[in-house]
Here is the input.
Amino acid sequence: MDTSSGVRELRKQAIEDLTREGRDPERYNVNGIIRDAWINGNGSAEVWRAAVDKHRIQFLVGDTVRVAVEIDGFEEYLYGRIEEFRTADNRTYRRRVPNPPSAYVELFERYSGALRPLSEITPEIDDFEITSEHEEVHRGAPAHNFGIFHCASGIHGGYTPPADVLVIHRASGIERRFCNDCNNGGQRARLGHQMWWDRQMCRDTIQELTEHPEQITGPADDEDADASRRWADAFPYLVPAKAAELYAQWKEHRGAA
Ligand SMILES: [Zn+2]
Here is the structure.
């Protein structure tokens, strides 16, 4: 066996092993794994494992990701797709490189993109908590619907399948139920954008409560106070910090009284 066919054999073996472990070989620097695990390393399970962890490629062109973008003084989470990797001085690479410093992300909901160091790019999936536990997914479903929630993606035509998963956007706590087909990066990105859309819609209320946070603790017969409390209950993730603090105290006092 000459050297090149030997290397080919090792590559084939490594790709088989990765696939058997349920990994996508595309997301790994296979040559690096071979070098660390089998050429320089003793090939033990631990050494293989360490090499696999080390040589995982976190981002690929086409991945759905999230970046933070400042809009109207707020740091909004916007989702998009990695268009290409860039050098430190913002040039395009001609071929694949192991550790590009930055990437250009084409944003789904804006006519622009965002250039960010990889350290400021988050795989979209990290923003969500996903459960497929039947009891949790369908807790509170109406009895007249046989105790089942349906997929809420809105893309189904005549028949909407039951939900398979409950997806929670960690930053806002907003939840949505999807069938397995709809539990994908595009639908999750729409869910992730909800917080930003809600904030745009509620701009006046947010400003009002930023300037007059004490309004939220007004008496029960005060219409404005009552309206801000109802708003805070509907959009807890949008309540300005000071107003949220006062509202929490107000609720505590009321509970005690
Ligand atoms: Zn669906």
Remarks:
- The pocket of zinc ion is lined by residues 151, 153, 156, 161, 178-179, 181-182 (CB under 6 Å).
- Helices lie at 3-20, 30-39, 45-54, 134-137, 185-201, 203-211, 223-234, 241-256.
